[in-house]
Amino acid sequence: MRYRKLGRTGAEVGIIGLGAEYLEFVSRETVVSVVDEAVARGVNYIDLFMSSPDVRDNFGIALQNRRHRVMIAGHLGAALKHGQYCRSRDKTVSTEFFTDLLTRLQTDYIDVLMLHFLDEPDDYKVVFGSGGLLDLALKLKKEGKARLIGMSGHRVPVALDAVNSGRIDVLMFPVNPAFDALPGELTLEAAKQGVTRDRLGPTRKELYQACAVRGVGLVAMKPYGGGVLFSSANPSSIVLTPVQCLNYALSQPGVSTVLPGCKNAAEMKAALAFLEASDEEKDYSAISDSSLWKLKGNCVYCNHCLPCPVGIDIGMTIRLADTAGYRLDEAAVAYYEALPVKASECNECGECVERCPFGVDIIASMNRAVAVFGK
Questions:
Q1: Residue 305 lies in a domain
Q2: Are 168 and 161 in contact (CB under 8 A)?
Q3: Three-state SS across 300-311?
Q4: Contact present, 309 and 347 (Cβ < 8 Å)
Q5: Helix (H, G, I), strand (E, B) or coil at 93
Q6: Where residue 105 sits, what CATH number does that domain have?
Q7: Range of 359's domain?
Q8: Whose CA is closest to 55, among 19, 94, 23, 18?
Q9: 143 Cβ contact partners less than 8 Å away, ≥ 6 residues apart
Q10: Which candidate, 8, 333, 298, 318, places its Cα nearest to that of 171?
Q11: Which tens digit of pLDDT belongs to each residue from 101-152?
Q12: Whole-model pTM?
């Protein structure tokens, strides 16, 4: 493993970390096998944003007797509502789920306490304002329950405000060639005010540079774009390997570590192959041949659109519909049949569309799932 400084914090983090989002609905044995592979190869940064008890318990078991060997990023504001992931800005609820995280991980502190999923200016004002979750995070830090303060987000303007504020140590942000091809960000607030794309604000590269200049550790999430970058059906038709995607993220200014999402030990090994890869294997220059590196409007199955008022697991539903688009087999049908709430229950309220940081037409995706699976 090779290590970099986590911004101005002085902490040393492996350039390859672990994003745990795909380890929520797998067996404990799978989680343990992934953590075993990661820690054995020097991975020392793990992000665990999920709030469901099973995944937290599984990581608590997996990290027994080696908690001291890894930095854990936990999220303040990630919660459950009626069994589904949701964001909360309520300090009581957020404290409850933070305490639950400590208990289930069998630890008394979190290394990086992330202010969870901040994309819109109004939300930023609530969280960073007096009495908001930032104040709670600082209180937990003072009590020794958190060592560093971070923020996770997907949109440049708010992320840049947080970086420039000097109030966060770490920023977790999606870094991949598809998203970086976008010329700028159009926020929901700006859209409502009639701002057009020819008046977009700062670019993603400017955000990365700001992190480097201000010493904010940049943690790169979603390096694979939800796996779409591996498919010949992606909007550019250029297929990248995990090693190329990781090299792209690590080549950007300010990036300290990159967090591939791995759902089994084999995928963890594929990410760690970067450490022995040749320059030729790391070369991602083919992206310069395409002007179509855009994933805006494509689901990366992050479930930030939840909670759904009627209980649809939106990310899984779209994932199964996408899978069926390549091959509709018995396994895909069986997985869909096992979902407690089907896409046909969608009442087109639009709440999920407003929450989606990637501009996915979720209602159309639900209709597509109904057309594929018949309900």
A1: no
A2: no
A3: CCCCCCCCCCCC
A4: yes
A5: helix
A6: 3.20.20.100
A7: 314-373
A8: 23
A9: none
A10: 8
A11: 999 999 999 999 999 999 999 999 999 999 999 999 999 999 999 999 999 9
A12: 0.81
